Structure formats: structure tokens, C-alpha cells
Hints:
This protein is α/β, with parallel strands linked by helices. The chain has 4 helices and 6 strands. The protein has helices spanning 3-11, 23-29, 46-56, 73-84, and strands at residues 16-19, 31-32, 36-37, 65-68, 90-92, 113-114. It has a 4-stranded parallel sheet with strand order 3-1-4-5, sandwiched between helices. Strands 2-6 form a two-stranded antiparallel ribbon. The longest helix is centred in the middle third of the chain and has 12 residues, at 73-84.
Amino acid sequence: ISAQEASRQSNSGKLLMIDVRSPGEWRQTGVPVGASAITIHDPVGMTSSLDNVMEAVDGNKNARIALICARGNRSHRTQQFLSQRGFTQVLDVSEGMLGRNAAPGWLARNLPVEKCERC
Length: 119
């Protein structure tokens, strides 16, 4: 899913955005407005992320989710991880926050960000 479409659908309540980057990255750029900041960089590993995602979607593995990271690599891995655990509607914002290939990314598209309050 493109950054623009993810932003539009997140703003209209059609999906939950999850930023999987590290707290340091969140502090540096902010997170997409309305996104849940759920890092995959927990010392416990991805299992902790899974618990946090389950909480964010109230246990609904059919919830529509869009994942974003810096350039699409970690969000893609997280998409696979969640899909393997029964999540059915996980999308990847493959251009990420910083852009990838010809796609400029969330920040260059001037999509809204907010300061991460718990970073």
C-alpha cells in the first residue's frame, strides 16, 4: 500500500497504522499521525511485538493493519511474521518513512507526523 493511501485509510478509520521502527527513529522523525508505535526492536524479540499488536487490535486477527518502517524492509518482515500467526489483513507501506526505489516515502510526501509521546 502506498504511504498516501495508508494515510487516507488510517485517517478515515479503515485501518490501523503501526510504526515498527525503534524508539530512536520515532524521536528523530515522529510517527505517522494516528499510528501505534510498536517496535520490533524489543529485547524479548518479535513475541513482545505480537502481544502489543494483539492488544492494539483488541485480539482481532482480522483487523486491517498497515505496517511502516524506514524503507519497507522491517515492515515486510513483520507482515510475514503476523501473517504466519493468523493475521489476515496486514499491509506493508513498502516505501516506508524515508522512501524506497522510486517511491519518496511518508516524510517526502509531507504526510502528517506527530511527536512520539512515549519515546
